[in-house]
Amino acid sequence: MGKPLIVVGSITFAMKGRDILGRRGFRSSVERVPHSRDAHGCGYGLYVPERAEEAEKILRSAGIPVTGRVPWEASGR
Amino acid sequence: MIYLDNAATTYPKPESVRRAVSEALVRYGANPGRAGHSMSIAASEEIYRCRSAAAEFFRASGPECVAFTLNCTHAINYVLKGLLRPGDHVVISCLEHNAVVRPLYALAQQGVQVTEATVTAGDNDATMEAFRSAIRQNTRLIVCTHASNVWGIRLPVERLAALAHAYRIPIVVDSAQSAGVLPIDLADSGIDYLCCAGHKGLYGPMGTGMLITANGAGLSTVIEGGTGTESANPQQPAGMPERMESGTQNMPGIAGLHAGIEFVKRRGPEKIAQHEMGLIRSAYEQLSRLPRVRFYTPEPDLRYFAPVLSFTVDGLPSETVGRELGKLGVAVRAGLHCAPSAHRLMGTLENGAVRICPSAFSTQADISGMVGAVKKILNKNYGSED
């Protein structure tokens, strides 16, 4: 089981989310979400290796459209 | 060449813009927003930086509010055709470019009604009253240019936005001639849809424009297609900016636009506007001393005008003057400037006018050179009368 990947609506929101989290002291990276991981098909998400649940709350409160959270193998990119 | 056709597109572009376009072809050669490999992500990052810079420049609520388009015309079409339905009524100004007039003409064939409000140069109260009295119960949208692309006449868009909102009507502003020169603050003004050209006052390459709005999700789409997201869903994504950005992006153009916005920020739009208006006032003063040269607006100042000036020469069609100026090495735009309504207002629909517009790079010598060329044309056609 890998660390969680927070799936967001678009690459724009992924990058905006990364910047928001960065200002709050979180490490995160923008990742491509494969088709099988999202019901609507491919998209983008934020890999947050630590405190992902807290990060998701911050993103949601900042208006980032979070569509889900999936396991993610950092080495499996 | 003395280039005074900057209202059509600015030239030259800053060195930083030329470099950014060139480097983008090398550094960001992959398709942005489509893949997960490093060059695709790097390209997406550059696009995101441009979105962020534009959002900050116009004080939009976030980079997701910025959708890239081919030009200002495309952005305007997206809004008009995305919002208006048969039976809707629209109020526009009497100075609109064909970018507004033609889509509305097409929509009128489907039952959209259009009323033109008269703009009074130098009297914003009169302009406001004209818009107010044009509003009807079924008015769905107000559309206006920020500044006439022919006469430079500036519209009080902040007051018009307040008026529109008092009637619960959204407002679209065509900022083709103003973005990068006149202040535009989306947060303060409440302008709902800002349509921008990237290749004019923002100094980006041609083929760049923007629709900036927090309301993009409410627009029906004109073009649908691949966005790199939600690929299994046949329905166009609802969220901005993807909703308005189907197909591969103009990556080098957007990189150049980013550099252009940064150029304007560094110089300061207020300084650019003062510089350009100083040149326009100088042109006005020098040309007004010449016989047969006719103006249609008072001496412009930034309160009521953008730095764009048009004139005619009595007895000579504007296209002739433009052609003669071209032969003398002065690039201007003559004719109707794709804005017949604006010419109708001033009675220049038949012969058009000669338009000059400086940029941040124009100089007093350019203006003097242009005036000297007009003198030569007058002497050639009428002998020395002054």
Explain this structure.
- The complex is a heterodimer of chains A (77) and B (386).
- Helix content of chain A is 30%, strand content 30%.
- The relative contact order of chain A is 0.33.
- Chain A has two helices and four strands; from the N terminus they run βαββαβ.
- Chain A starts with a strand and ends in a 5-residue tail after the last strand.
- Chain A is an alpha+beta fold and 77 residues long.
- Chain A has a four-stranded antiparallel β-sheet with strand order 2-3-1-4.
- The longest helix of chain A has 13 residues, at 11-23.
- Chain B has 386 residues and is of the alpha/beta class.
- Helices cover 40% and strands 14% of the residues of chain B.
- Chain B has helices at 15-27, 38-57, 72-83, 98-108, 124-134, 157-166, 186-189, 251-267, 269-288, 318-327, 340-346, 364-382; strands spanning 2-3, 66-69, 89-93, 113-117, 139-145, 171-174, 193-197, 209-212, 293-295, 309-313, 330-331, 333-335, 353-356.
- In chain B, the strands form three sheets. Chain B has a seven-stranded mixed β-sheet, with helices on both faces. Chain B has a four-stranded antiparallel β-sheet with strand order 9-10-13-12, covered by helices on one side.
- In chain B, strand 6 (171-174), helix 7 (186-189) and strand 7 (193-197) form a beta-alpha-beta unit.
- The longest helix of chain B has 20 residues, at 38-57.
- The model of chain B has no long low-confidence stretch (mean pLDDT 96).
- Classes of the chains: A alpha+beta (77), B alpha/beta (386).
- Chain A binds chain B through residues 9-13, 15-16, 30-32, 35, 38-44, 63, 65, 77, and chain B through 32-33, 35-36, 41, 44-45, 48, 51, 62-64, 227-233, 237, 239, 241-242.
